[in-house]
Amino acid sequence: MNNVKKTIRFIKNQVIHRPLLIGLIAVVIIGGVLWYTSQEPKSSIRTSLVTKQNLTETVSASGEVKADNQSELMFSSPGKVAWIGVKEGDVVKRGQALASLDTVLLNTAYQQAAINLRKFEATLDNVHDQVKNNDGDEDFATRDRRTTAETNKDYYYEVLKAAEYNLRNATLISPISGTVTSIGGLSVGENITATSMGTSVIRIVDLESLIFEAIVDEVDFQKINVGQKVEVILDAFPDEKIPGEVVYIGREGKKTITGGIVLPVKIKLTSNSDKLVVGLSGDIEFIVDQKNDVLTVPREFVKNDGQISYVMVRQNDGTINKVTVTTGLTTITTQEIIGDIKEGQEVVLQNYGE
After folding, report:
1. 3 — pLDDT class (breaks 50, 70, 90)
2. Is residue 311 within 8 Å of 297, Cβ to Cβ?
3. pTM exceeds 0.85
4. How far is CA 322 from the centre of its chain?
5. How far apart are CA 277 and CA 181, in angstroms?
């Protein structure tokens, strides 16, 4: 027992005082184990059977559910919220009023701008009347007086237009038919400031226009066409495949942080599922090609020597021969083959594991 304790104490001292030596010993031991396991014999042959099956070649991408028709509305000027006529979840029609500001101050600003414009229009008419015969010999003082009158009139014309715009837009009108998905936290009596206008947004979404927008890599871009059938699997419903159809392919690529190029592709979802909501993410498979009852083998069994594609086939007498094939449809794991080969024959992958 004393010898065991001494040994343990010795090892602890070495770990504390000679960590580099202990680390080196550990590396040597680990390297020896890896070398030993690498010398274990590996199977040099793998086999599979030629089978008939239905193949579907697809292109995969990720994306999210969006509304192709939606609108965000906000007040164009500060003011006090006087009325809110909708709540989240309400269905609204195009042209329907949604909310409005108190228009007392806005109307006052409009009336004041109109009064000022009339005043400076009269001033300008008076000045023009006074200088109408001095076109050829207008002195600097006269020019200054005329220019001041003209710019004052122009300025208050623009002020009136702005006041009219603010008064007209004191009531938010929905430009589309749809469902209210957010009222931006608005409440009656709230004072909308210049800084809060951008966050006080009423959002209307046409839930009949839901699409799935996928981000497709440039490598697969040429395989996608408008009208192509697709299947969408949302993360929220992983066991449900939602059918769709490509309705738009983007014409402006975007560079990713890794330097690649991706393009947006819009898919019209043909399912009327009430489960679909804006923002759900998922994956999509674009169906590039489909074939039924074709001869297939695992992809890795098909080899190419630079001139022909071939597979190694075990004959009835046990010999293994090279059989030339033409490759057809390809999926991630499976390859269609065409040639002097039959269903049920055994194909061989030689030097497997080397």
Report:
1. very low
2. yes
3. no
4. 47
5. 10
